[in-house]
Amino acid sequence: MGASYDIIKTHPDAWMLLVVFGVVNLVLARTVLRGRLKMAKAIIKGKRTRKLAVGLIALRVGVHLALGAVGMQATSEAAHIGLAVAMCAATVSLLAFDQRVMLRALAAS
Predict the structure, then answer these.
(1) Rg for the chain (alpha carbons), in Å?
(2) How far is Cα 3 from Cα 6, in angstroms, rounded to an integer?
(3) Which of 63, 50, 42 is nearest to 94 (CA)?
(4) Angstrom distance (rounded) from CA 101 to CA 97
(5) Residue 94 CB: number of other CB atoms within 10 A?
(6) Residues sharing a CB contact under 8 Å with residue 48, sequence separation 6 or more, in sequence order
């Protein structure tokens, strides 16, 4: 989801693909990954996850404001793809860290 804005800016019809990915994610969460539901609920309810989400939004806005301040707007396809890759990498790495912390906390309890 962190990269969806840039993906849609690059290819406006990509929203359909994002919807399909969302549906696949929901189906997998309800079927194959059902055993991890307790962990997922703990992660979603955690304050740290909300802080990560707000931080990612702030990072997104901050990058665009910083680029605007130096006179470089992200208007090209390559710039949007670069930002999408960077946001994906930041989102995945931060959520993987949060998941490891949450799994340790659940294992301890």
Answers:
(1) 16
(2) 6
(3) 50
(4) 6
(5) 19
(6) 98, 101
Q: Which amino acid appears at position 23 of this protein? A: V
Instruction: Determine the pLDDT at residue 96.
Output: 83
From residue 12, give the alpha-carbon distance in Å to each of 18, 47, 72, 77: 11, 34, 22, 12
3-state secondary structure of 91: helix
4 pLDDT band, cuts 50/70/90, is confident
Whether residue 77 contacts residue 10, with contact meaning beta carbons closer than 8 Å, is answered with yes
Tokens of 107: 């294992």
Q: Which amino acid is at 64?
A: H
| Residue 12 CB contacts under 8 Å (≥ 6 apart), including other chains | none
Instruction: Kindly report, residue by residue over 10-55, the tens digit of the pLDDT.
Output: 888 888 888 998 898 788 877 877 767 777 777 777 777 788 888 8
Contact 2, 90 (CB under 8 A): yes
